[in-house]
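note to self: dont lose this again. the chain is below, predicted strucutre after it. 482 aa total, dont forget to put it in the shared folder this time
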Amino acid sequence: MGSTSAENSNPEGVGRRDLIKRSAALGLISVPTMSFLSACASGGGDDNNSGDKGTGKTSKANPFGLEKGGKLEVVVFKGGYGDDYAKAWEAAFDKKWGTTTAHTGTQEITGKLQPRFNGGNPPDVVDDSGAQQIKLDVLYKNGNLLDLAPVLDAPSIDDPSKKVRDTLIPGTLDPGLQGGKVVALNYIYTVWGLWYSGKLFKEKGWEVPKTWDDFLAICKDAKSQGIGGLAHQGKYPYYINVAIMDLIAKKGGLDAMKAIDNLDPKAFVGSDAAQAAIDAIYEVVEKGYLMAGTNGLTHTESQTRWNQYKAAFITCGSWLENEQLKQTPSDFDMKFMPMPSLPDSKLPFEAIRAGSGEPFIIPAKAANLPQAKEFMRSMLSKEWSTLFAQKANSLTILKDGVSDGVTLRPGTQSTVEASKAAGDNTFNYLYPNWYSEMDVSIQNASNELMSKRIQPKEWLKRAQAAVDKAAKDPASKKNHRD
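---
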């Protein structure tokens, strides 16, 4: 979203900023992922595109048959992660392969690229993120995305005895699934939840709230002191859905989460977990615990006011620290925490939404497919993963993907610790990538709810209607998680 995810209707759009120390990184990436229940397919199959084989001799070191020279065009979303990392990648690629790479960093992904997809002359590699992301399900239905199985099944650069897919954190390929094929590589390891200032909490004597009642108590105390309880990025209701969907999954367990992804006729209406979650969020609204004006603010506006100690909490993904570097006071002590638990929740307080974000794609009609595939394979090398950590200050989906000597910022360090504490108790929704229209409809309902224009019962009704509409699309039968 947005300059990262904020501007994106997907969690994946932005940059999580923190530096990474090897020990911490190891702690984060060894997290098991019971939550990422794969969607019944790991994306096999061959791509049948013309021009997808190079003219050089293939080998484990050169599986796509590249010859020296050639061209490549890379377009990346220039948000919270910037695009310096991509420039470093391109320089390394050109040096190794003698290619000439054309680079574009932009936030106008749809504006710049939709005409090119329509015209059959897209770039070779695209970071399809941000507020103007071209929706992956739309690209897939239009036949615009390359099946990435050949890249994932190629030998790893670091250990040619392993396939690339076997070097990745379990479950991180799932968000790139469309119709049983991996057509997008979500490159950045991300967690979602609540954020707070360690400095403010220390000054106020507040403890990290593990229950929803304790959370409301802090919001009440904050309000009595002229501070908002909860800030959210009102113009982008994706963010408040982080809280709503986290509460549903933690209250009802993985079955409640999968019911939504699998378009269950009782995903929302008839779901006790959904009812409890939306009632809990609405209580914050009814009791006046929202930061003043937050409903009308963009992501960066709300986040900056939170950085100014005008709210105790804000919902976001782990790109927040990166996105707010310039606005965050040096002693703010940014911290991440899991969503507090509702009574009788099936998942523990430590459970968090965790997964991969920032989708990279190779267009099916890319002019330089061998180079594009080798570029993506290189992204999943330790060298390039470390370059990303150094330039964008965030973790990638590569296991043990960061060399020694990279240091963590406070916010990211806290996400590492939260991930270690979560252990197996992680979860992640797939519906935003599978059903973008449904996702937007639920966001719109949340916007109405937070502004008190509708009540929880109506929110549930609208969310269920969005699910039911998506279920009528025959293509939805190809997406399922067990």
